[in-house]
Amino acid sequence: MDIFKYMNKHGHEGMLVCSEPSVGLKAFIALHDTTLGPGCGGTRMWDYATEEDAMLDALRLSEAMTYKSAAAGLALGGGKGVIWADPHSSNREVLLRAYARHIDSLNGRYITTTDVGTTTLDLEMIRLETPHVVGLPTEMGGSGSTSILTGLGVYLGMKACAKSAWGSDSLQGRVVAMQGFGKVAHETATHLLREGASLVATDVSRKAMEEASGLGASIVDTEAIYDVDCDIFSPCALGGTLNAGTIPRLNCAIVAGGANNQLESEQDGKRLQDRGVVYAPDYIINAGGIINVSCEIGANYNEARARQITERIYDTMRDLLNTAQQEEITTAEAANRLAQMRISSVQALREVYRAN
Ligand code: NAD
């Protein structure tokens, strides 16, 4: 992989390679665009197959964070941390503390929180080494788990898509196939079940599958999830699961889930559209978590305010669906336009200030 070519093409500002051989730390912190504010995004801990996979994930995820915060109207830029390690490794504390020293060295240009493989407990360890961490437990004055509002946003995004697909935003009696049943899927499922939807779920973790089954979901194999006859397919695991191989297999009217970077490539948005599937751009409907932590930065966290901002996801999603239809573009393109317009208008304003 030509790392500089990739970063130039995608507009990344930089990437910190974090190493601490004494504890086996291998991590990357990618900063994409900090026009709107410091790069903010979670830390993922995952046992990637290769160094390149880990690096590319950090780069792709940081870019998605730029767009997510921009579209949600937040004063934050895009950043993401990736620790290349088994999430079940026994030396978690030392790994996290060593990693946190690297975050600290960026002096606030990157602010972290949770992601796949990390929890609020991990953030407490990170906080021992750096103040640049949000999503801390409420007992520590933080905003608590990001998954709660992420799940709410995903659910509301599904409802907005339902209104467009079926004329009503009710999800009662609808079948939702959930790929991955971790923190976000669990929160989303709670809302769906309350409304009378039924669930089909899969996960690579036995514990997660037991949890889904305990809530009443039917369980299928990880590969079989793409073929489930459902109303909504909800990617809630890792990214890149919507691609040329999987999209033709889907039997749903809507794709709406919490996972970041669901589309493997730009063409996949068009592939979904060509199949008549309403696609909720991932970073629009999974913005609840970043909205929640943004309310912790520079102010006393207020849950009601965070919830109120998250609830706007319904209207943003409705607007995007209308724009996509009117302009004959994909919903993913409509979302990118929304985010790019905000970044370029702030950039233009800066240039005006600089010129005067
Ligand atoms: P999590 O680690 O709690 O859950 C992810 C689940 O996916 C795990 O149970 C894992 O076993 C499962 N999984 C991994 N690979 C799989 C596969 N191939 N098939 C089926 N299951 C698989 O993480 P989470 O916080 O719930 O995040 C889920 C997704 O949502 C991620 O893409 C994350 O980046 C994104 N996201 C999370 C938040 C948040 O607030 N936590 C916010 C925005 C976006």
Brief account:
This protein is of the alpha/beta class and 356 residues long.
Offer a few descriptive terms.
globular; alpha/beta; 12 helices; about 350 residues; 2 domains; Rossmann fold; binds nicotinamide-adenine-dinucleotide
Could you characterize what this model shows?
The protein is globular and about 50 Å long. Helix 2 (51-71) crosses helix 12 (331-355), helix 5 (147-166) packs across helix 6 and helix 11 packs across helix 12 (331-355). The chain is built from twelve helices and eleven strands. 45% of the residues lie in helices and 15% in strands. By secondary structure, it is α/β, with parallel strands linked by helices. The mean pLDDT is 95. The strands form two sheets. The protein has a six-stranded parallel β-sheet with strand order 8-7-6-9-10-11, sandwiched between helices. The protein folds into two domains: 11-62 and 76-133, Leucine Dehydrogenase, chain A, domain 1 (Rossmann fold, 3-Layer(aba) Sandwich), CATH 3.40.50.10860; 147-288 and 313-340, Rossmann fold (3-Layer(aba) Sandwich). The structure holds nicotinamide-adenine-dinucleotide (NAD). Nicotinamide-adenine-dinucleotide (NAD) binds next to helix 5 and helix 6. Residues 114-117, 146-147, 150, 179-185, 202-205, 208, 222, 236-239, 258-260, 286, 289 line the site of nicotinamide-adenine-dinucleotide.
